Amino acid sequence: MLKEDNLISYGKTIKLDSKDKKILELINNHARLSIAQISRKTGIQRDSVLYRIKKMEKQKVIRFFHTVLNPSILGYPIYTFVNFVLHNLTEEKERSFLGFLKAYPEVVYVAKTTGKWDFTINIAAKNLKHFDEVITKIRMKFSKIIKDYETASIIQEYKYDYMVGLV
User: Could you tell me whether strands 78-86 and 107-112 are parallel, antiparallel, or unpaired per DSSP bridges?
Assistant: First the structure.
C-alpha cells in the first residue's frame, strides 16, 4: 500500500459530545460563521468553541473547510465519475497513476476503492469533446495498467452531506 497524503485517515475512533456536535452542525451548514457567531448560536463560550474546533482539526475529525462549487454554472456541465479496473500494477505504476490524476486539473476527485473497481475519479469537463480528450489522455498514458473502465455522468444531485447527522 502506498503511503500518500490521504484525505481519510484511519485510527483511533473519536467520541464527540453534544457541544462538539452542535459546533459541527453549524459549521457544516454555515462554514463562514465567525467563532463569536458560533458561540452565540450554540451558547458555548467563545474560547471553548475555538478550543474545540482546533482540537477537532488536530484529531482530524475536521479535515478541511471548503466551498462546494456548482460545476455546471462554472462552465463544466459534464461532471462524470469514472471507475477503473487495473492490472499488472506495481507500486511505481500506482504512484505514477495517482500522481498524474492528482495533478490533472479536470480530475477533481480521486479515490482508491474496494469491490469491482480499483479507483474512482470524477472529471469536470466543458463538453463531451473535452471529456473525451481527458479520458483518452488517461487511457493512452496508462494503457498498460487500465484493464477496464466505466463512466457514470451526474445529471442531478439530490443530496450532498458531510455526515454531521451521523455523529
Answer: unpaired
Shared domain check, 137 and 93:
yes
Amino acid symbol at 15: K
The answer to the question of residue 117 being in a domain is: yes
In the chain, the DSSP E strands lie at: 78-86, 107-112, 119-125, 146-153
62 DSSP assignment? S
Same domain for 98 and 130?
yes
**Residue 75: which region, alpha, beta or left (left: phi > 0; alpha: psi -120 to 50)?**
left
Note the pLDDT tens digit of each residue in 120-158: 999 999 999 999 999 999 999 999 999 999 999 999 888
Q: What is the pLDDT of residues 79-115, one digit of tens each?
A: 999 999 999 999 999 999 999 999 999 999 999 999 9
Q: Determine the Cα angle at 161 with ends 152 and 148, to 5°.
A: 25
In this predicted structure, the answer to whether residue 20 has a pLDDT above a threshold of 90 is yes
Range of the domain at 128: 78-153
In this structure, the answer to whether residues 29 and 94 fall within a common structural domain is no
Residue 27 and residue 88 in one domain: no
The residue behind cell 489522455 is: 137
